[in-house]
Design a protein that fits this description.
The structure is a homodimer of 358-residue chains.
Chain A: H1 5-8, E1 28-29, H2 41-50, H3 62-71, E2 79-82, H4 84-95, E3 103-108, H5 113-120, E4 124-129, H6 137-143, E5 148-154, H7 166-174, E6 181-185, E7 209-214, E8 227-230, H8 233-240, H9 250-261, H10 263-286, E9 290-292, E10 298-302, H11 307-316, E11 319-320, E12 322-324, E13 329-336, H12 340-357
Parallel strand pairs in A: 1-11, 3-4, 3-5, 5-6, 6-7
Antiparallel strand pairs in A: 2-8, 7-8, 9-10, 10-13, 12-13
Chain lengths: 358, 358
């Protein structure tokens, strides 16, 4: 069909499709930075209680907001919930008024959805390269001009796993015009070990900062889609009005509240991540493979010019990792930290493949 | 905090909050046009199978699209899935290019989200009044001008329960410029009894029409949030690119596929709706209360100047119905058709209240 409707429709590129391989058994899934464990038994049991209420529209999330607020010493009015962090990113973009030219500053590379969503909402993404694999706050400050409406900061940064520190972030905020919304996406914050990680929560009352967190990573609820944002009351209120009613499903609301209450589960997940990280560091060192020390649940590994080929070979062994060609890091793969068994399967698989190549 | 950020943030009105009353026992919930029954046992059993996979991002929905396509004799490429019909409405609005002035034509009253979402996405809603509680396709055609980008048609129309017919719809399409996207929201189509209801599916290859359907109503999955759209391949492809990756949660995908396969469940739901409709018609007639004959799972009832008061009195009896003041129908309430027991509780409650008023 060639109707004149096509003149009016935007041609947006497709979001790059990840290899997921559904529920098929036998795969080692290290490509999507998921939690390798099923969710907290608390979450599962609460979901089961709600199964026979699924014909009703979702609860309004008020109790969950109160629980999240309490967890951070904030009020429910400081809390936004969304259909994954992705919806919170969209709400930020939707909330800002459009003038003739509007730009969004994004680190390059960082989480791919920032740039894609910015384009969908009619912003021009301004990309500021990382320096030594780290977010360059000074260069981001220098890139600000009258057209800048939002800045997306990814901390830890995906796909590098690096962080910027509290001192640099506070200096950055102080120096920034107060008419720019700063969205700090901390999807991987629970995994951070560094003591210098910013305390952004203390800044929300003085600066237009919204912090995004998620239940998809450390809490193991990726399949249910729920993230949250923390910010100053009026900003939260304006962002919330751009939200679809009922965008967060009932099970996600129920499960998130239960998951937040089960901090023992979180502790175990973080212990596994630390152990896996040390194991992978040491295995990679013994193979003389370069990697970027990480504060997240994934490691950026430099494989060299064979990186895409190695990814395919790992795939043949049913080991999923992410080749970073789409991030202009063609010599790298990003590997999620799995269970100890999965980490071992990955290391053995990688060893075998590299041996056959040499 | 008064930062200059507020100059740049849109002030969008809040979506009107419905009275839901969560899981509390003893309520008769007839205010949100939900299915009064829990979802199909097939859906529940498949959700239970997936509980321990919730740490993974959702499957890509390919199998569900194929199943929906097959159900309507279409290809998977003709099918969109979204986080409730609401996300499909948003995708339609996001997909169109913006020029200086863009308008969306909407019947007044119809589903409230069309106008709210249009404003969020920078369109001006042009509202065309119903005639005799019915969508006025002729007046909608007359309202079209160079600024018109989309038309939302709600069939059956919420909150009136009325339909436009196949003949009028086909004539309407034939006469319409082909550069306007026509979104036909058929959320309540499964409940229609009239033989004159349009077959929109036959029009997607010749006209820029996208049909929206949902699993929230007849299939009883409102809490999980999943709707779908059917349209011509290229239009579906462009709309899909505006979609959040992973916007539909894993349980919704799983449950929808199982629900679609359980047509026995659907049949029982429709039988209950027909029985409830006849029962309510006859009860209202015996009380000499005016109502609009419905093709959906709700009935628009004319209570008179006391309608808001009656709604509050019903609420005191733990019976939730929707007063339609927000729809400029202040003398009306909208009552969802419940189980037979619920319908009886509503009729008895209404009788008692009206008796006390007279």
């Amino acid at each position: 069909m060639k109707l004149s409707i096509h003149e009016h429709i935007k041609e947006i590129p497709y979001y790059p499709k990840a290899m997921m391989y559904g529920r098929e058994d036998g795969w080692v899934r290290l490509s999507s930075n998921e939690n390798p464990y099923p969710p907290s038994p608390e979450a599962i049991s609460h979901i089961m209680d709600d199964l026979f209420y699924m014909n009703r529209y979702p609860w309004d999330g008020g109790e969950l907001k109160a629980a999240i607020g309490k967890y951070y010493g904030k009020k429910p009015e400081n809390v936004l919930i969304g259909n994954g962090s992705n919806e919170l990113i969209e709400m930020s973009l939707k909330a800002m008024k459009h003038t003739e030219k509007n730009t969004v500053i994004i680190s390059e590379p960082s989480f791919a959805f920032y740039a894609i969503a910015s384009k969908i909402y009619g912003y021009e993404p301004v990309k500021v390269p990382l320096v030594k694999m780290k977010v360059d706050l000074k260069a981001i400050r220098d890139a600000v001009d009258d057209h800048t409406r939002l800045i997306f900061l990814n901390n830890p940064n995906n796909p590098t796993g690096t962080i910027f520190n509290d001192k640099d972030f506070k200096a950055f905020l102080k120096d920034l015009p107060s008419d720019i919304l700063v969205v700090v996406d901390e999807a991987y914050a629970e995994f951070v070990e560094s003591k210098t990680f910013p305390d952004c929560f203390s800044s929300i009352h003085d600066y237009p900062v919204v912090i995004l967190r998620t239940f998809s990573k450390a809490y193991g609820l990726a399949g249910l889609r729920i993230g949250y944002g923390i910010g100053e009351e009026s900003i939260v209120s304006y962002l919330e009005r751009t939200k679809q009613p009922f965008s967060v499903n009932m099970m996600a609301i129920t499960a998130a509240k239960a998951a937040l209450s089960d901090q023992k589960y979180l502790k175990k997940v973080l212990i596994n991540n630390r152990r896996g990280k040390r194991f992978l560091y040491s295995a990679l060192q013994s193979m003389s493979i370069e990697y970027i020390p990480t504060e997240a649940n994934f490691i950026l590994i430099k494989i060299g010019p064979n990186a895409e080929h190695v990814t395919k070979k790992l795939f043949d062994e049913k080991i999923l990792v992410r080749w970073l060609g789409a991030y202009n890091l063609g010599e790298y793969i990003r590997v999620s930290i799995g269970t100890m068994d999965e980490n071992k399967v990955f290391v053995e698989g990688l060893k075998k493949i590299l041996l056959n190549l040499s």
